[in-house]
Each structure stands twice: as C-alpha cells, then as structure tokens.
C-alpha cells in the first residue's frame, strides 16, 4: 500500500492466471521456454490487472540496460540551429531502429573536450554506443577512435578513419549515379566541388565513383579548386569565385555535399549564370532544404532509415559485419539539372 493506492504485483498476475510467479517473470523477460497458450494467459491477466513489470529489476537480473547511447559530434561554434540537419535525420533513423528492437536511446551532443565521453558501455550506462555527426571536429574523433577500435558494441557513421566498426552511405555508387545523370542530361564538362584530399573520406569516395563512371563515358571531371573557408556553404561560394578567376570552362557541378551545392547555386545566381541552362548542379545528402532551393536541387539521397537499422544491427547482432556496411543511395532528379 502507498497513499491508499495498491500497486499490482507479479504475484497478483500469477494468481489470476493460475501460474507461478516465476512463470510471469519468464513471460516478461521474453523466455522461449513458455508455451504460447500460457504466455497469452499471463498477458491477459496482466492487462486485466493493469500490471506493468518493473523494468529496473528485470534489467538488473539480465545484466542489460535496455539503452543504446547515441553521441552526436558537433562543432564547438555551432548552435542547435546550425547543426547539419543531416545529423538530426540520421539520429531519427537510429532512434526508430532502436525502438523497433525494444531499446531506448540516450542522446548526447558533444562538441568540446570538456564534454567528450564515450564509456557508456564500460560504465554500464548503456548496452551499446553509436557515434555520428560532423567530421569537422578532429579532437572528438581522436577521443572516440580508441573506443571504437576496442569496443565491439560501438559503431559510428562515416568517420574520417579507416578502422572498422562503421556504417556509411554507398558514396562510390552515389558518385556514379551523379555522373550518369549529368551525362544523360547532356552535360559534358563537369566539375567536382569539395575537398578530396582531406579527413572527409566520403568526399574522396564520391569523387572516385564520379570520375570512374565519367571515364567509361569518355569524359573527364575537372577537379575542385582548393577551398579554405570553414563552412560548406561558404566553400560553395568560394569555389565558384575561384573557377571564375581561373577562367575554367564548365557546364555542370557535382558537389560533395548539399551545402556546398547550395553555396555554389547562390554564387552562380548572383553572377547571372543560369541553372540549369548554363550549369547543372547535383548535390549529395538529400537534405529537405534542397527541394526548396531556386531551382530545386538534384541530389543523391542516402536511405537514412536503412542506415539507422544497420547501425543498430551492428551493435546488437553478434553476426553483424564489423568491417563496415553501406547504406543504399538514390538520385532525386529536380530542376537544377533539367534542361529544356
């Protein structure tokens, strides 16, 4: 009794169902040793009595927390509104996949050394850890590198490192899709915008797929000028300025990410260059904002629902491939590459 309100116990459910208390316990811990008729009888009794099992006690007995920690790495200078919306979308995919597996998620946004913490599994705060977010915070990745290398129940999205325990989009295939689309649309002098020789391994993979497919068509890609601005939109603007200063002739752009593409689109519009008439543009990431650009931006979109499922599977399934897997991608064709 507590304040005149009685809390139903497993013993009450056992009495109503005509089974032992240990049978009730096994039903709610998912034991396969219970027959289906007995399971249904216990569950019916629990519903009738409005019984809720004590999750904390169950977790203590099983040694599991029922929680997956999700660390989102950001840049120290970014406010919540400035964090790449791609990270929020991927986070949603992870949380949904975890929920489908019966797990709760503990989400932590980390940007600076005084915030870095990744020992959730070791400290029994969570059963597994998933790390995602910007690669523009090298100090954060140096902190998480040894944890990801050593902890079998930890995995990351992307990652500027070559070690295993990661999931990323099929960047090479995305580059090939961009090349095929631009070529089929009649563009013959494409330029790739984005740093290739950098910590952004995924950018190099996108460039690789793009250039290899163009070569099969008999074409070549113009490499991106060196970019120095820290933000991606600024890099897109900077790239257009440098291409104009160098007198580079091009008729299309494959940008390493949507923000670079949006910056390039803005700079081209300011120069009075028609998109898609004079220059076609393809971005990468499938950000919702690209649909509202002027003109709407063609983009390569990773399947982030599937990415979330793959990340969760990596940390929960022992048979999961620890050497990394690829989330599928698709091309979303819009007006930025639609000639005529």
Automatic annotation (TrEMBL):
GO terms for molecular function: DNA-binding transcription factor activity; transcription cis-regulatory region binding. Residues 12-56 form the HTH cro/C1-type domain. The keyword Lipid metabolism does not apply. InterPro entries: Cro/C1-type_HTH (IPR001387), HTH_LacI (IPR000843), LacI/GalR-like_sensor (IPR046335), Lambda_DNA-bd_dom_sf (IPR010982), Peripla_BP_I (IPR028082). Pfam families: LacI (PF00356), Peripla_BP_3 (PF13377). The keyword Coiled coil does not apply. Keywords: DNA-binding, Transcription, Transcription regulation. Residues 12-62 form the HTH lacI-type domain. This is Transcriptional regulator, LacI family. It comes from Altererythrobacter xiamenensis.
């Amino acid at each position: 009794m507590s304040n005149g309100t009685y809390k139903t116990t497993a013993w009450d459910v056992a009495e109503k169902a005509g089974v032992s208390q240990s049978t009730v316990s096994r039903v709610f811990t998912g034991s396969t040793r219970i027959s289906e008729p007995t399971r249904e009888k216990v569950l019916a009794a629990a519903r009738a009595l409005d019984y809720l099992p004590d999750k904390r006690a169950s977790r203590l007995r099983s040694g599991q927390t029922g929680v997956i920690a999700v660390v989102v790495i950001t840049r120290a200078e970014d406010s919540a509104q400035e964090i790449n919306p791609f990270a929020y979308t991927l986070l949603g995919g992870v949380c949904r996949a975890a929920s489908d597996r019966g797990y709760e998620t503990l989400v932590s946004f980390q940007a600076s050394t005084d915030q870095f913490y990744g020992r959730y599994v070791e400290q029994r705060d969570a059963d597994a850890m998933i790390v995602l977010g910007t690669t523009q915070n090298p100090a954060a990745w140096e902190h998480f590198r040894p944890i990801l290398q050593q902890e079998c129940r930890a995995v990351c999205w992307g990652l500027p490192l070559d070690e295993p325990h990661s999931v990323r989009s099929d960047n090479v295939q995305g580059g090939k899709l961009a090349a095929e689309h631009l070529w089929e649309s009649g563009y013959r002098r494409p330029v790739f915008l984005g740093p290739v020789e950098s910590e952004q391994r995924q950018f190099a993979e996108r460039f690789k797929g793009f250039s290899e497919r163009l070569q099969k068509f008999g074409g070549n890609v113009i490499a991106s000028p060196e970019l120095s601005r820290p933000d991606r939109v600024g890099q897109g603007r900077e790239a257009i300025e440098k291409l104009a200063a160098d007198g580079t002739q091009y008729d299309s752009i494959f940008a390493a990410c949507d923000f670079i593409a949006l910056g390039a689109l803005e700079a081209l519009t300011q120069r009075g260059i028609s998109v898609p008439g004079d220059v076609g543009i393809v971005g990468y990431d499938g950000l919702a904002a690209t649909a509202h650009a002027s003109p709407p931006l063609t983009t390569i979109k990773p399947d982030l629902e599937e990415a979330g499922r793959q990340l969760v599977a990596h940390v929960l399934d022992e048979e999961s491939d620890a050497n990394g897997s690829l989330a599928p991608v698709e091309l979303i064709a819009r007006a930025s590459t639609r000639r005529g």
